[in-house]
Amino acid sequence: RSHEQTNQAAMRENNNNATSTETTKMKMMNEIVIARAIDSLGKGFDLTSDFRLKYCKGTERLILLNEDQNKPLFVPGFGTLANPFSIDIKCDKGDNTRYQSDVLDFTQMSEVFN
C-alpha cells in the first residue's frame, strides 16, 4: 500500500468511529429524554409557572401504574427501548385526524357575532 492509501484508510476509519460515537451519544440522549417524559407521567404540573417536564411536581405519581409487570416500550421515531417500562404505558403515533373549522362568508359571520 502506498502512504496515501494508508492515510485515506485511516481517515475513513476515523470517520466511521466518529459517526458511531455520534450515533451512540444521540441514542443515549434520546433514551434520557424518553425516560424523563415517562417519569413525569401521572405527576402534577403547576400551570401558573411552567409545564415543562423538568418542573413536574413531586416524586409520587397521582395515578397508579402497574410497576410489577414490565415490557420493552416501542416509541415511534426512536425504536424499541431496552429498559422495561410498566405495561400500563403505551406509545403510538396518535390520531392522524385533521380538524378543520368551517369557513363562513361575511354575512354568516356577522349573524354569528350580532
From TrEMBL:
<protein>
    <submittedName>
        <fullName>Uncharacterized protein</fullName>
    </submittedName>
</protein>
<dbReference type="GO" id="GO:2000031">
    <property type="term" value="P:regulation of salicylic acid mediated signaling pathway"/>
</dbReference>
<dbReference type="GO" id="GO:0005886">
    <property type="term" value="C:plasma membrane"/>
</dbReference>
<feature type="region of interest" description="Disordered">
    <location>
        <begin position="1"/>
        <end position="23"/>
    </location>
</feature>
<dbReference type="InterPro" id="IPR044663">
    <property type="entry name" value="CAD1/NSL1-like"/>
</dbReference>
<feature type="compositionally biased region" description="Low complexity">
    <location>
        <begin position="13"/>
        <end position="23"/>
    </location>
</feature>
<dbReference type="GO" id="GO:0009626">
    <property type="term" value="P:plant-type hypersensitive response"/>
</dbReference>
